[in-house]
Every structure is written in structure tokens, then in C-alpha cells.
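Incident log, structure service

09:12 report received: a user says their structure output differs between two submissions of the same chain.
09:20 pulled the input from the user's history:
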Amino acid sequence: LNENAEVSRGDTLRVRTFWDRPGLTVSADLSRLDSEFASPDTLTDELDGGYLLEYPVSHTNSRSPGTKEVTITASTPFLSVVESAFVTLREGRASSDQVLYIDRNWFDPMAGEVVTFSAESDATVIHVEIYNLAGRLVRTLDGEGLVTWDGNSAEQRAVASGIYFIRAKADEVEEIRKVAVLRGGQR
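09:34 re-ran on a clean worker, output below:
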């Protein structure tokens, strides 16, 4: 069932499962493995009764290391079958050349969502500047290893829905990203 039984934060988990027919509705529950789990990014029907799940484990996953159960459900309109697999979540993060991670490109602060900026090392200093479309600095954030933006300005006022530019620095790496603030479920 499982192609790589060990993952770290930032790794891609690959689970291949085989059923006796193509065209099933197949879903996965990885919430015990990843605190940020919403739904798999890619679940591919391989048209031979095989299904491949590829899921990037979030860099900000707060689950403790250890063996975790993941479940795969295959359904027809009349029947559902659940399979389990066990995956070991290793301590630390995946090894990569990437130093800085940003966990999303849109969020709804009214729903309690935040944007998380994290570094490869918990000791890495992160500096984040948030600008509106007019180029005005809205907020600056600094921290070690992890910082979050809650959608408020430096004056702790809620920013308007819209697009914001993020300038994030960690070590010698600088990234510029866009983030959409969508207040009140304006998706």
C-alpha cells in the first residue's frame, strides 16, 4: 500500500493502493499525520485499478514524530471500503536547498486563518515585510524559525480584502510572493 513508509515535514508522501476496478471515488485521510491536512493535492486514477496519492507534508506540521495511521477510502454509489497504512513521521524537516517556506497564498483572517512563514532551521532569523498594492508597508514581522501574519496591520487593524506583496528573508535568501486576504469567505 505505501511506497515510502517514512516522511519528514516537507517530504512528499506517496501512497499507491490497488482495487479491482478503475473509476472508483478514492479519498484519503492524513489528518493523523499532518496537522495542516485539508485534502490530497494529487490523487491519480492509474486506470488499471491502481490509485496514486501524492501529498506534500506541510512544513508547519505540528504532529509529534512517530508512527501514524493514514486511511484510504474507495467508494461506489453502493459500497465503501477503507484501508489503513502506517507511516512514520520523522523528527525535523526534509532536507532540501529551500531555506524559507510560506504555507499558503490566500487566507481568511475572519475564519482564524493565518499565513505562516517558516525556516529550515528553528534558529534562522526570519524577516517579513507586507506591502499593499499601492506599495505602502503594512506590517513587519520578525522571529526565529517561524512567524505568522494574522491579517492585521502594524496598528493591529484588520487589513482590507485584496492582494498583498510579501517580502520574506531568511539567511541570505529573499522571496517575494503575493498573498490574497479574503475576509468573510469571499472565495
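09:41 both user submissions now match this output. Likely a transient worker issue. Closing.
09:42 reviewer note: The mean pLDDT is 82. The two ends are 36 Å apart (CA to CA).
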